[in-house]
Amino acid sequence: MVVEEISVADLHALGPDVVLIDVRENDEWADGHVPYARHVALGTVPDHLDRFDGSPTYVICKVGARSLRACEFAAAQGHRVVNVNGGMLGWRSAGFDVMTGSDVVRG
User: Fold this and answer.
1) Of 32, 52, 101, 107, which sits most exposed with the smallest number of CB within 10 A?
2) For residues 19, 24, 28 and 34, what is the CA-based torsion angle, rounded to 10 degrees?
3) Which domain holds residue 51?
4) How many domains does the chain have?
5) What is the structure's pLDDT at 105?
6) Average pLDDT for the chain
7) In angstroms, rounded to a whole number, what is the distance separating the alpha carbons of residues 105 and 73?
């Protein structure tokens, strides 16, 4: 199955009105995430497919491998998904804002 991909720069350009799912583990999420992302750890994706309600839904992880797995699963269930190539490492490297707890850290 081929999954559509997007760069972190192109995702950032779309702005906060997209549905973005972060599939990293709880400690990774707490360490910093895209301010408008929703958290659904990879292991819980099958139980939370209702959160993939965008058209499309963008999916991010650390670099893009786990998010690709989540995309493949969600796509097989009929969801339109886009993998974020480069993940949070790319997002941070680009200097984009990251949220930790309730604080936004400006890139």
Assistant:
1) 101
2) -20
3) 4-105
4) 1
5) 62
6) 94
7) 32
Q: Read off the pLDDT of residues 12-54 as tens digits, 9 standing for 90 and up.
A: 999 999 999 999 999 999 999 999 999 999 999 999 999 999 8
State how beta strands 98-100 and 103-105 pair: antiparallel
Which candidate in 61, 71, 84, 98 is catalytic?
61
Which pLDDT value is given to residue 1? 76
Q: What are the backbone angles phi and psi of residue 59, rounded to the nearest 5°?
A: -130, 130
Examine the residue annotation and report whether 71 is marked as an active-site residue of this protein: no
Question: Could you identify the residue written with the tokens 């099958």?
Answer: 46
Q: What angle do CA 25, 84, 6 make, to 5 degrees?
A: 175
Q: What is the CATH number of the domain that holds 89?
A: 3.40.250.10
Task: Extract the tokens encoding 36.
Answer: 């408008």
